[in-house]
Specification:
- With 129 residues, the protein is of the alpha/beta class.
- Helices cover 29% and strands 21% of the residues.
- The protein has 2 helices and 4 strands; from the N terminus they run βαββαβ.
- Strands 2-1-3-4 form a 4-stranded mixed sheet, with no helix packed on it.
- The longest helix has 19 residues, at 79-97.
- The chain is globular, with a radius of gyration of 15 Å.
Length: 129
C-alpha cells in the first residue's frame, strides 16, 4: 500500500510521465511485494528555482535531470528487498528512459496501517493486508 511522490524537472511529455509511472509501478510489484492494482502516485514537475539540491552530495554527480522518488509504505520491507528495489528501478529508468542512475534519489518511509484511511474515513485494518 505505498503512495509515491515523484518530483522532477519541467519538460517531460505526457508519454514520458506515463512511462515513468509504469516503470515505478512495475518495480514496486516485482521487488517490493505490492499488489498490481495498488497504485497511488503523485507526479510533480517543478521549475529549476523550486528544485534545490546539491549535485554531488553522496552521488557521482546529479544533473538537472535529477528525479526524486518519495515512497511511503505501510508494511516494512527487508534490507534485501529495499536494495533490490533501488537497483531495479535505477536500471529500468536507465535502460528505458536514459535516466542516469546518479540522477535518481529514492527515499522510503514506513508507517503502520493506523496511519492509512483509503476512503470513507475508515482506518485500514491490519487484516486487510
Amino acid at each position: 500500500m505505498p503512495i509515491s511522490r515523484i518530483t522532477l524537472r519541467q519538460g517531460y511529455s505526457d508519454a514520458a510521465l506515463r512511462q515513468l509511472s509504469r516503470l515505478l509501478q512495475q518495480t514496486l510489484v516485482a521487488e517490493f511485494d505490492v499488489p498490481g492494482q495498488d497504485c497511488f502516485q503523485m507526479i510533480e514537475m517543478l521549475p529549476a528555482v523550486q528544485r534545490v539540491f546539491d549535485p554531488n552530495y553522496l552521488s557521482g554527480g546529479r544533473s538537472d535531470d535529477f528525479v526524486l522518488f518519495q515512497i511511503t509504505a505501510g508494511k516494512p520491507r527487508s534490507r534485501r528487498q529495499k536494495q533490490q528495489f533501488y537497483h531495479s528501478l535505477c536500471s529500468a529508468l536507465q535502460r528505458e528512459m536514459g535516466i542516469d542512475p546518479d540522477d535518481v534519489m529514492i527515499v522510503i518511509q514506513f508507517n503502520s496501517t493506523e496511519e492509512w484511511s483509503f476512503s470513507g474515513g475508515r482506518m485500514l485494518a491490519q487484516e486487510a493486508l
